[in-house]
Specification:
437 residues; alpha/beta; Rossmann fold; Dihydrodipicolinate Reductase, domain 2; Alpha-Beta Plaits; 3 domains; 11-stranded mixed sheet; 14 helices; 36% helix; elongated; binds NADPH dihydro-nicotinamide-adenine-dinucleotide phosphate; binds L-homoserine; Homoserine dehydrogenase
């Protein structure tokens, strides 16, 4: 049989990783796919630059549209990133009747609804396994492996760069900026690393996970987002004293009123497996009604780990080349006419426990005022830790863990406490999750 000919847009970390994996494992991959997969064309901004992969047998161009329009190319693999040019190239490929594989979570989270609709009309596949959690086959696991379940919630460490930074800060006391620079050098970070640090990349991925878990349209704009840039070593230390780790989690939960979609730093009990997922590794814990909890773990970023997911998608596409488009796995797991229109909840409606760190003047009555305000807002305290006050400065640091409370009530209580004149700095608050059920 003739090989399936593919064109790759982007020869960076993932593009070269994909070419290298296809070259090294070509025979094994062909045994699975039923046909050889051959890279015939590729685009990059600078085609003179030396690459991390052998491009000597590939037609190179600086114009990605040339790859899309190349009559020999049957499958377009978008590994450039960005959302404007990438969107027009992917739509052009679909309109030309070509299947698409992409690792671009921003593209799918922001424009996936339209892309999948167009792909459905044209009878082509758009595969995006690499868009979430790097090399972990989490899309396939949820979309196909858990198809018999009602998924109740999922919680994941879904940004490798952020987890790498938090782990290095905690274990080696390294500085934020220094670890971020290393993550960039290793090819983990996004082109704009604020996407990693401010939680935007994790929010893109969470929007995708929630869509395939619950059968809802992609709704990136409804994800509540907080990054890791405000996490201090002090909070990491207090959390450890109390038996917790701080992880940046993406959480999606089904509730009777609607869906929670949020990414933020989270205290989780250190005995949970997911609390011990460190470095660039990712993990997604899925709680489903029939199977119960399942945990998926692996490298969340990096050249060959991500290429593993890209190539798995290519194998799926090659196998599907001869199947009837109506009988393929739906892009978003559920049939397009069976998506739920239940709302995504405002963060103020979400209930969680909280870690609070307060810096106050060391005066009688301070703690009483704080606990009174919490009580007035229906917030009960699970644990309190007070550092021995600094007598020279007349300051005290108080750590509180609360029981579950509606976020709106916590916002009001924090505003009232911060209005007390003995509060020295704004309150630090970090949400907590038990992740037991
Ligand atoms: P890189 O920045 O390493 O590579 C991007 C490639 O695209 C480069 O080769 C670049 O060319 C090329 N490119 C960009 N713009 C153009 C353009 N206008 N015309 C032609 N070529 C262009 O990115 P990554 O490989 O890290 O990421 C690619 C995608 O994969 C992104 O969507 C990212 O979010 C996603 N992803 C990345 C992971 C990772 O671990 N890095 C993991 C999972 C997903 P040149 O080299 O000449 O500049
Ligand atoms: N920048 C992303 C991360 C790449 O660090 O997780 C993988 O999606």
């Amino acid at each position: 049989m003739t090989p399936v000919k593919i064109g790759i847009l982007g020869l960076g970390t993932v593009g070269c990783g994909t070419i290298n994996v296809l070259a090294r494992n070509g025979t094994e991959i062909a045994r699975r796919a039923g046909r050889d997969i051959q890279v015939v064309a590729a685009a990059a901004r600078d085609i003179q630059r030396e690459r991390e992969c052998d491009c000597s047998q590939i037609r190179l161009t600086t114009d990605p549209a040339e790859v899309v329009n190349d009559p020999e190319v049957e499958v377009v693999v978008e590994l450039m990133g960005g959302t404007d040019l990438a969107l027009s190239l992917v739509l052009a490929a679909i309109d030309a009747g070509k299947h698409v594989v992409t690792a671009n979570k921003a593209l799918i989270a922001l424009h996936g609804n339209g892309i999948f609709e167009r792909a459905q009309e044209k009878g082509v596949m758009v595969a995006f396994e690499a868009a979430v959690a790097g090399g972990i086959p989490i899309i396939k696991a949820i979309r196909e492996g858990l198809a018999g379940n009602q998924i109740e919630w999922l919680a994941g460490i879904i940004n490798g760069t952020g987890n790498f930074i938090l782990s290095e800060m905690r274990d080696k006391g390294r500085d934020f900026e220094d670890v971020l620079a290393e993550a960039q050098a290793l090819g983990y970070a996004e082109a704009d690393p604020t996407f990693d640090v401010e939680g935007i990349d994790a929010a893109h991925k969470l929007a995708i996970l929630a869509s395939i878990a619950f059968g809802i349209p992609l709704q990136f704009d409804r994800v509540a987002v907080e990054g890791i840039s405000d996490i201090t070593r002090e909070d990491v230390g207090f959390a450890a004293e109390l038996g917790y780790r701080i992880k940046h989690l993406g959480i999606a939960r089904r509730t009777p009123k609607g869906y929670e979609l949020r990414v933020h730093p989270t205290l989780i009990p250190e005995r949970r497996l997911i609390a011990n997922v460190d470095g660039v590794m990712n993990a997604v814990l899925v709680h489903a009604d029939a199977v119960g909890p399942t945990l998926y773990y692996g490298a969340g970023a990096g050249a060959e780990a991500t290429a593993s997911a890209v190539v798995a998608d290519l194998v799926d596409v090659v196998r599907a080349l001869t199947t009837d488009p109506e009988n393929r796995v739906p892009h978003l797991a559920f049939q397009p006419d069976a998506l739920s229109d239940k709302p995504v909840l405002d963060l103020a409606e979400v209930e969680t426990s909280f870690y609070l760190r307060l810096r106050t003047q060391d005066r009688p009555g301070v703690l009483a005022d704080i606990t009174r305000i919490l009580g007035e807002h229906g917030i009960s305290i699970e644990a309190i830790l007070q550092r021995e006050p600094d007598p020279e400065r007349g300051e005290a640091t108080i750590i509180m863990l609360t029981h579950k409370v509606r976020e709106g009530a916590m916002n009001e209580a924090i505003a009232a406490i911060e209005a007390l004149d003995h509060l020295l700095t704004p309150i630090t608050r970090i949400r907590m999750e038990g992740l037991a059920r």
